[in-house]
Protein 1
Amino acid sequence: MDIKQLKFLLALDQTRHFGQAAALCHVTQPTLSMRLRNLEDELDLVLVKRGQRFEGFTEAGERILAWARTLLAAHDGLQAEAASCRGQVVGSLRLGTVPLASFNPMQLLLPLREKYPELQFQLSALSSEQVIDGLSRNQLDMGICYLDQVSTNYFEVIELGTTTMGLLHDTRHFSFEGSQLRWEDLDQLPLGQLSKGMHYRQSLDLSFRSRGLEPLAVMESDSTFHLIQALNAGVCCAVMPLNCGLENLSEHLRIIPVLDASIHSPLGLLLRRSEPRSAIAEQCFAEAKVLFGMK
């Protein structure tokens, strides 16, 4: 058994396709299939359900996957620790973040990139629950999420402030007077929204209901990119966080603050307290403390 076999297994889990997994690992599909069969032979287990195409993992395969993730995280941590002993910060920082908040992750990644040019980033858009779970399972190094479900017994936390909201729109299709809007101004306005279940969407729904309003949702998506496409096409507007940078994606996009529009739970940057913690995660979290004014 070697590290490459485990990487092949995780690539198959990520892509759910033999050809795509092989391409991700920069090997041919026959090579990937052969190495996975060698792993199965060594473990004396069937890990992958095979037919004309990938059909999923066996129960044993799912259990082995969990160990593979842990072993690869430990391998990456060892490499990062060795680099740290040499006075370097190299490798990949795995950061999970909620997709919509009044914090642009580039405020963190750009200073880190400037200080540590060899550092790479794996950025995942996740719900708060998924961020917490990913940190707990050592699938993420750090996370940005809402703090209402976070225990400081298990996580170190840097608070990043409150998420405030405004109406994002394309000026070619919609126009509004004044520098601020009320919730009542959004009533019956065609809106694009995140899919139900996301923390941001839940807070938005509560804000409308508490005022006796029912938004005219003409589109739902789990992708912020799709919402921006809809705005550009004039399909709708969207209630989006202030200061997240979305309005900078096009010269035609504008965001107008909405009065008393905020998410009550603060946003925070998290680092798991328990070991193993990579040297990269600890160094980047320490830099974040300085960057965001935390002693």
Protein 2
Amino acid sequence: MNLHYGPENLQALLGIAVILTVCWALSENRARFPFGLAAGAIAVQVALILILFAIPQSHGLLEAISAGMSALSKATSQGMQFVFGYMGGGDQPYQVVNEGALFVFALQVLPLILVIAALSALLWHLGVLKWIIRGFGLVFEKLIGLGGASALGVASNIFVGNVESLIIIRAYLDKLTRSEVFMMMTVGMANVSGSTMVAYVLILSHVLPNAGGHILAAAIVSAPAGVLLARIMVPELIDRKEEKIDYTSSLKYDSAIDAVSKGTQDGMMVAMNIAAILIVMVSLVALFNMILGAFPQVGGQPLTIERILGTIFTPLAWLIGIPWKEAATGGWILGVKMVLTEFVAFLKLAAIPLADMSPRTRIILTYATCGFANIGSVGISVAGFSALMPSRRPEILGLVWKALLSGFLATCLSAAIVGALPNAVYGL
């Protein structure tokens, strides 16, 4: 492997330093910078990426992950065709002139969430998911110093999502410190749920080799990144390293059928929430863009929210390792992710022709985009956290916008770490 190190890798290293400095500047206690946690969290991220992409033996694992996600997508397609016929991807009753028009987000992507949610509930009931989460909880406990409910909550967040991870540690919510509540909010913003991972892979599969491996890696490495930035911005005052993780949980199902049934119901709620948020956010942005259209054009094009945010985020895109000639496009994708959710950002990223964006930039943007940190998620977080911790609603309202920023920067930190590693790690 040719471990060539170029200027673009160095600028990503600068990006890591800048992100950490910004979070430190916004810290509630700048004197308590967690140097040990910073070293441990970044080391965990680098190690995971190297294990998945730099070790030849891991290629089989990546192929297995991609094959598994492809199988889930094909199985879901069978169910959709059975219920919706040609609208669900079955044989078309008429001549198709535009194949691209057959892709309908509500019918090709959202149903995957139902299947994965039901499968996740079944795996939880059978104990498989519990053991996986237990393994990650142990890693977080030993390597980045988390203890007690926070380690379990962060580990479960990788697979079951933001609000669902709170249900798993519901018995301990009243004991969480302000720093731990903020950490759970940040990790939830920085992460994605298992029920949406396969949907992202489906969207990116035709433009990103090893899409399954990259999405899985992005979901995992963003967890320690979220922990790190949360601890910097709202430092912990209580040492809980010696607290053992209690894996008992209030999340239980009566039987396998009950797990599948309730998992499907939960998946329906997630899918409907995603659909509703997308409709509202896209509509609101379109409305604001119509208003901005009344202003004089800039650069021969009308002003839009995405263009404005894209310009603002262009330096950030460069800092995470994207070449300057592609930084404007990268900033635009980051702006779309912030305003219109990561789903729309992934759709926009997938629509960029292969010739118009380098593979390295596409990989970096995948990690930067893979997280729930968007304006729409603020409402979801407030509703979910407040429902489970009603007495702490004022505290949650005071932290949620800060969590949006830390969650957004956490995915950018993961992307910068990806950009800082030699291109040969990803086969480029």
Protein 3
Amino acid sequence: MQIPSDTTDLLSVIIPLYNEEDNVQPLCEAVFPALRDLNRPFEVIMVDDGSRDQTVARLESLLSLYPELTLVTFKRNAGQTAAIMAGIDHSRGEVIVPMDGDLQNDPRDIGALLSKLDEGYDVVSGWRKDRQDDALTRNLPSAVANWIISKASGVHLNDYGCTLKAYRREVLSDFRLYGEMHRFVPIYARWQGARITEMPVRHHARMSGSSKYGLNRIFKVLLDLMVVKFLTQYETKPIYIFGGLGFFLFLLSFLSLGGGLYLKIFEEINLNRTPLPLLSAMCVITGVMCILLGLVAELLVRIYFESQGKTNYTVKTIYKMKS
């Protein structure tokens, strides 16, 4: 199938790969028939994340069999999020569907995601309701992380870690992915006013290869969540968070000093016998630094937006009376 120049109805499927040499051929044999059954133009962008096995060689041998396939290779391993971002950058479709390359996601679910998207949603997130992974090392940490992310973000999804999702391209505009942030796109989209839903998808046990995820990823995810929350809620008003922290420290300093004076006057305890004066002084100094840092951040934000010609708002539609 030749990809048409008109990309209005084009579907872009993005698949990051890292050391998946045994899964390459069965992956293609599963993905391409499922997409052809949708009867719509599509492209598949497979991004090799610096594999050290024969993943790239096997993909190169399949390029002639699948004209819809585009292969992007990295010089070194950069991580799943970077691979997905590269796929987005090299895609042309108005609908983007990332999925894993280990055959645990089922490409036959893509049609259901698209149907849900056609109901008016901007993001449809897959939910591995019957997840086929180790309950203790994978499912339990994932459930805890999903609960924390939902509570912290206010966007309640059962499975942030499921790569299989469907996005309208405009949701991903002006948004760069770093760290482990690909799982937080629904949060960013919701905060920008997008309509989001979640639906169960199939999940299969890994047949070959090994998982690239470990328990240490939980801490990376939580740190990235802090970054996303800051960038989306305080990007244009950093003084609110720095100033708020500064005033909290001022209050703590006042309470510490008040406590010290109470001990001195009513308990006859010398102030140099307590850490309260030192705590009060440290809180004042740190509070002043936080407020000054917030002011500097405000200046940087204004310089950034004005120099780049950016706005701190997003227009959905403009209505105008015809003359």
Protein 4
Amino acid sequence: MTDRPRRRRGWWSSVRARTTLAATAVVAVALTAAGLTVLAVLRHNLVESASLQAETTARDVATQLAASTDLTRLKLPDADSQPVQVVSADRLVLAADDDLRGQPPMADFGPYSASREDEDDQDDEVDDDQDEKDGEDGEDEPPTATTKDPTATEVMFGDVRLTVDGGEPSPFRVAAVAATTAGGQPVTVYAGVSLDTADSAVADARQAMLIGLPPLLAVVAGVTWLVTRRALRPVESIRSELAEIMEDGDLSRRVPESASRDEIARLASTTNATLAALEASAERQRRFIADAAHELRSPIASLRTQLEVAQAHPHLLELDGVIGDTVRLEHLAADLLLLARLDAGEQPRADRVDLAALVRDELAHRVGDRITVDTVLPNDPVVVTGSRLQLARLLGNLVDNAQRHAATTVRVCLHHTGDRTTVLDVADDGPGVPEADRTRIFQRFVRLDDARSRDEGGAGLGLAIVRDVIERHGGDIRVTDGIDRGARFVVTLPTVDV
């Protein structure tokens, strides 16, 4: 069976490449949006400038009309730069530059651009009002021309396309202002300003932006690529060091840590902490295997010796010794299996267990023990959540340990503390546990010197199992002074409502 070929990674699969692409894309979008905004603002300002110029020209012509200047004597600007027309209410061009005199009105908006029907209606209303006024006064009065201040007249703006000097139609900004001739005729003054300059300026600015955008994006991409490479260099050092550690299996090595306090430094610190935990775990595993092999070697060697003697001299076989070594092997194998399951992260069952009933049942089965166990138990149920088998094993190991070291008395007490916790303590009147060893005795294969001499087959796993079971059930354990300076193991477990 051939190995599957490794898939080649493209350049885009690296964090550096993706970061560079993302940064370049973001900058491109931002610059495009900013450029469009600048172009819009630029064109708006240029159009507003053209509108102001057209308005000024229109009001200047309207001021001349207000000063009773004859239509033929108006001073009009050159039609090429600023076309001007004076248009009557019935849309006739009354005055304009020679190039625009024969053309229709340059715009169809203004104060007098309403339909003829609307104008007729307005004229009828004016006539009716005039007739009523004449009737009241009793005599006819000639109409008087109303004059308007050209500087206060409302101005209207619009964009149109005009043909000047026979060229191509071009855009113009046109202002329309109402005025009145010397004869009292209402007219509209149209003044336009070419938008070619504005369009040309916007086009030049857009062209400059388009030319400058690619080099700017290239600079952004290059800077991002270099900065990202420098930022990720410590990560590559961590990766390469971890690869070497995985290759040679030396968990004592550590990845380099930078002096900075950034995320990469914290990553290196966490990686080293993980390596330290793995190293400690591997050391515990090696020590556990060595101790287990040592503990298994003794009963196995004893069994082999007894069986070899029995094979040669059947009448010398001691069944009690063989059975004792077999029971010791059985207990040791069971302890090792339970510790292996606990180390693998096996969670206890979520059964509701009455601790008071469990203590009564387990102690009732202990018939023929060297020391009788005294109990102080509540009458009401004490319910905890967990595995009945593991809790029974916990109690059995604590009682076995107390009986192994007690002189005359072993006592088991169970009571509530009032804060949804239950305390189980097992006390004896033995030699006790020195304060310096009250934490160490929960380690695996640890036996104190005086306990080793009194040990009847114990391998130093009972209290380690007790600690692990209690931790899996959310409790804790501590060692204090017991009866007559003996040992007292206090177990605290969370309870549930009955």
